[in-house]
TrEMBL record:
SUPFAM superfamilies: vWA-like. The chain crosses the membrane at residues 12-31, 62-79, 306-327. Keywords: Cell membrane, Membrane, Transmembrane, Transmembrane helix. PROSITE patterns: VWFA. Coiled coil: none annotated. This is VWA domain-containing protein. It comes from Ferruginibacter yonginensis. Residues 94-286 form the VWFA domain. The keyword Transmembrane helix applies. Signal peptide: none annotated. The keyword Hydrolase does not apply.
């Protein structure tokens, strides 16, 4: 309990600690002064044991005086604790991360593969957006809400880390992924609603056409940033064969025309990520383009902690006075 009271102490006037230089001077003066022989020796009928005890304890009042001085110096230095309170005012942005988890996302033209690279940059993006609500939708041949909009970024990051290939029926249902993301933003009251859609293929499934999903996004004022991920030409990809999993070169086929159209007509932008560095740069660009209108005001409060030292000084002075004038009193 005492430790908690003095935790994180700072001193508002630390220059008073220079007064501690007086203590060795006082000790020197005291030792020098006590070397002088008393001018008058008073005989006593006290018991020898009591006299010996008083003689051995005769320096105690001086020790209590030094303790009192030390407490006064610390009190003058004004010990206090600091508490910073932050108040956020304004409105954040609601963002849905829409991530392709189809089989082709295991291609290894990004390190270690497209899906793991996408997860890493998504987590980094989340860590930078401290005031926004963010959610995650995954899609392959169908779509699924991995995490609804939330400000609990620990839960969100755990959800992203749990994404892996094989969670959904294989395929690339871009329209379904986008429409599910829009549905999660539909009732949002924020002025800015964003979808960041990442895919490495062409739409080949799902119940909703990507162009229909685009019109829904426009109707609800949702801005869509689209990312095509994959190198040019061929990419190495693990493929299940009768002889086990083998690496094969698979053609990279991204519908850039469709992704560009979706982004342009909803007010967003289309990006192409051919490697890890490019993917990191894209998320950094989106982060810079979509800044939250949040004003954070920091209020600093100081709590004084000098009172225990002031009480300690008074206590030690009282003990010194009692000892000096009652126990160790000198006769004239």
């Amino acid at each position: 309990m005492v430790f908690d009271y003095f935790q994180n102490i700072i001193f508002a006037q630390p220059y008073f600690f220079a007064l501690f230089l007086l203590i060795p001077i006082l000790i020197f003066w005291y030792i020098k002064n006590n070397k002088q022989t008393a001018a008058i020796k008073v005989s006593t009928t006290s018991a020898k044991g009591l006299g010996s005890f008083k003689a051995s304890m005769r320096h105690t009042p001086f020790v209590f005086r030094l303790l009192a001085i030390a407490c006064i110096i610390v009190a003058l230095a004004n010990p206090q604790t600091r508490n910073d309170e932050q108040h956020a005012e304004g409105e954040g942005i609601d963002i849905m991360l829409c991530i392709d988890v189809s089989g082709s996302m295991t291609a290894q033209d990004l390190t270690p593969n497209r899906l793991e690279a996408a997860k890493a940059v998504a987590i980094d993006f989340v860590n930078k957006r401290t005031t926004d609500r963010i959610g995650v939708v995954i899609f392959a041949g169908e779509s699924f809400t991995q995490c609804p909009l939330t400000t609990d970024h620990n839960v969100l990051i755990a959800s992203i880390q749990n994404i892996h290939n094989g969670l959904l029926e294989d395929g690339t249902a871009i329209g379904s992924g986008l429409s599910t993301s829009i549905d999660r933003l539909r009732n949002s009251k924020t002025a800015s609603k964003i979808v960041v859609l990442l895919t490495d293929g062409e739409n080949n499934g799902g119940l909703i056409d990507p162009k229909t999903a685009k019109e829904i996004a426009k109707a609800f004022g949702v801005k869509v940033y689209t990312i095509g991920v994959g190198t040019d030409g061929l990419a190495p990809q693990p493929v299940q064969t009768p002889l086990g999993v083998q690496m094969q070169s698979v053609k990279v086929s991204i519908d850039e025309k469709l992704l560009t159209q979706i982004a342009t007509e909803t007010g967003g932008r289309y990006f192409r990520a051919k490697d890890n560095e490019g993917l990191n740069g894209i998320y950094a660009t989106i982060d810079a383009l979509e800044k939250s209108k949040i004003e954070i005001t920091t209020t600093t409060r100081f709590t004084d902690k000098f009172l225990p030292f002031a009480i300690g000084a008074a206590f030690f002075l009282l003990i010194e006075i009692l000892l000096r004038y009652l126990v160790f009193r000198k006769f004239p």
